[in-house]
Amino acid sequence: MVGQLANRAQFGLILPSTNTSVEAEFNRMLVPGVSWHSGRIWIKNPDLSTSEAMVAFLADLREEMQRAVESCLHAKVDYFVMGMSAETFWGGKEGATEFVKYIQDLSGGLDVTTGAAACGKVMDTYKVRKIGIITPYQPVGDEEVVKFFEQIGCVVVGIYGMKCASATSIADVTGEEIKDAFKRVDSGEVELLIQAGTNLCAARACAELEVELGKPVVAINTRFHGFTGYKDPGLTNIRLRVHTKAKALLPYQYSLDADTNMYMHGLKQLLVLALAGSGLACQCTSDGQKGALADITATEQACISSKGHIANPGRKDVQCNAETRV
């Protein structure tokens, strides 16, 4: 359902009551005409100091989830996004599918994006399989994350769990600590680095580290955002235009806050997603450096333009101009 301040769509966001990062990072990527409406899951005990405590935490979360979903339904939302990730990985690929069905049943059939589902789409988009993962979890959580990725065909070269002591302390992890964690699992064998745990404030750290390492470094909250209903033409008229030397024009749905530098790497991922969907290239490069950020300049309100190169495995690099406009 649309409203006076959201004439395109209203999204329901389900997150734990202890989470302070998801809404803040999502709001930095907010698209005009789209609103987010949060349903918070009551957390009885935020302790995550042991694997046993984490299992108990997730059991409590499942018990309280229905009320959070129902509170969003009161706002007549069009689409759901799960603003937590651990629960969506539990039980591997089959468990992830069952979780989506569970939320759809609770919501009366609305579509939903989960962390696990978005991860699968990231792997398909980047066409890579050898990955390094960081999480804020205890070993029991890391085991479930590895199980999911292996069951969708990935090779987990390394995983590092930061073993955060509580659900709230996850948000206290600094950007430098996040970068250090990624470097623990990175190697020449790793093709892509990815992060789980939505309460980690990882968007800026991932953007900066991607430039430093020259390979994709994907934050879960930007990953969520890129694979929500924004890609549905029925919800927004945002278009990515890529003009190649062949004058090709490729529409694609995405969003980015033009005034937020920490999300500049989102445009690179936007180009990757669009080109993958078009059958052209799957990697954006700038100044000849694979994985580098595109040169982005805000030219007007809610408009971003970029010039870079699109590396196409089957042909020479093509010059492109890309823009998002709302």
Structure description:
Pfam families: Amdase (PF17645). InterPro entries: Iso_Racemase_Enz_sf, MaiA/AMDase. The chain is α/β, with parallel strands linked by helices and about 325 residues long. The protein folds into 3 domains: about 10-115, Rossmann fold (3-Layer(aba) Sandwich); about 120-225, Rossmann fold; about 235-325, no CATH class. The protein is built from 10 helices and 14 strands. It has helices spanning about 20-25, 50-75, 85-90, 90-105, 115-125, 140-150, 175-185, 205-215, 220-225, 265-280; strands at about 10-15, 35-40, 80, 110-115, 130-135, 155-160, 190-195, 215-220, 240-245, 285, 290, 295-300, 305-310, 320-325. The strands form 3 sheets. Strands 9, 10, 11, 12, 13 and 14 form a 6-stranded antiparallel β-sheet that branches. α1 links the parallel β1 (about 10-15) and β2 (about 35-40). The longest helix has 23 residues, at about 50-75. The protein is globular and about 50 Å long. Residues about 230-325 have low confidence and may be disordered.
Task: List its salient traits.
326 residues; alpha/beta; Rossmann fold; six-stranded antiparallel beta sheet; four-stranded parallel beta sheet; globular; disordered C terminus; MaiA/AMDase; Iso_Racemase_Enz_sf
Shape from CA axes?
globular
Measure the end-to-end span: 20 Å
How many β strands by DSSP? 14
The oligomerization state is single chain
Unreliable stretches, pLDDT < 50, 5 or more residues? 229-326
Residues in helix, %? 25-40%
**Can you count the helices?**
10
How are helices and strands ordered from N to C? EHEHEHHEHEHEHEHEHEHEEEEE
Strand content: 15-25%
Rg is: 19 Å
Second rung of CATH, namely the architecture of the largest domain: 3-Layer(aba) Sandwich
CATH hierarchy, class of the largest domain: Alpha Beta
CATH topology call of the largest domain: Rossmann fold
Structural class, by secondary structure, is: alpha/beta
Pfam families: Amdase
